[in-house]
């Protein structure tokens, strides 16, 4: 089973989610840069992402964070309505190659279910053709870096051994999520939120620049797989 993050990893949405996080925060009188938002928020459930950005300046205000999150949800819905959303290069090609090898493809994300499903629909991915399971932050008790989303997907697919799982994501918290789940291989990818150097700080097994680079890793490692 390979678990892929969405925005920045398999979905190319031009960082609109973090630009929207920044907008929702800065509308309340702050002046965070996009780099600051990415450093603190990447990969996290979005209310927690806002709290983390505020905490970086020593601010712990639940009410304020809640107001920002409400604004964020409304702004993101509108942004995604008009924004062109595409897959990251080679995403569909990789998904289908993995599934043809008998490897489950899982999408997981810090988005809520409604947003994630709208992105999948906009790209045109079909469950059972391009991916097997979609798991979102709104379905679990604890979010990244806790492994709940990966464990939920494992349960749905009947996988009991995390050594049968590979995690791929564009942020350090994606890598940490996989490590906390006990995944066999944890892969950082440079197409999204974090740079090569930032990803290195989480000690991933590999860092890649394009999704298709995962195929030789799967072959080389001879990773245990589960039949689709």
From TrEMBL:
- Residue ranges annotated as coiled coil are none
Q: Which domain of life is it from?
A: Bacteria
Which terms in the GO cellular component ontology are assigned?
Answer: cytosol
Pfam families, alphabetized = Hydrolase
Single Gene Ontology MF annotation: phosphoglycolate phosphatase activity
Name the InterPro entries on file.
HAD-like_hydrolase_sf, HAD-like_sf, HAD-SF_hydro_IA, HAD_sf, PGP-like_dom2, PhnX-like
Which GO terms are recorded in the biological process aspect for this UniProt protein?
DNA repair
Hydrolase as a keyword of this entry, yes or no, is yes
Q: Which UniProt keywords apply?
A: Hydrolase
The protein, known as: Phosphonatase-like hydrolase
Q: Record the organism.
A: Spirosoma terrae
């Amino acid at each position: 089973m390979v678990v892929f993050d969405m925005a920045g990893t398999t979905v190319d949405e031009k960082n609109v989610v973090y630009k929207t996080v920044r907008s929702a925060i800065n509308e309340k009188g702050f002046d965070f840069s996009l780099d600051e938002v990415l450093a603190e928020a990447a990969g996290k459930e979005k209310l927690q992402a806002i709290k983390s950005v505020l905490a970086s300046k020593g601010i712990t205000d639940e009410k304020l964070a809640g107001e920002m999150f409400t604004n964020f949800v409304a702004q993101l819905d509108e942004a995604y309505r008009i924004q062109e959303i595409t897959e990251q290069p080679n995403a569909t090609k990789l998904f289908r190659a993995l599934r043809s090898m008998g490897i489950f493809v899982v999408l997981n994300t810090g988005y809520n279910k409604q947003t994630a499903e709208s992105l999948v629909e906009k790209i045109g991915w079909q469950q059972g053709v391009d991916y097997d399971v979609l798991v979102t932050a709104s379905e679990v008790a604890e979010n990244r870096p806790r492994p709940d989303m990966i464990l939920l997907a494992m349960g749905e697919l009947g996988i009991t051994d995390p050594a049968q799982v590979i995690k791929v994501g564009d942020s350090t918290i994606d890598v940490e999520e996989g490590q906390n789940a006990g995944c066999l291989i944890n892969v950082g990818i440079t197409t999204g939120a974090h740079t090569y150097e930032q990803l290195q700080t989480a000690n991933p097994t590999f860092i890649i620049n394009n999704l298709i680079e995962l195929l030789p890793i799967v072959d080389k490692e001879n990773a245990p797989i589960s039949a689709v």
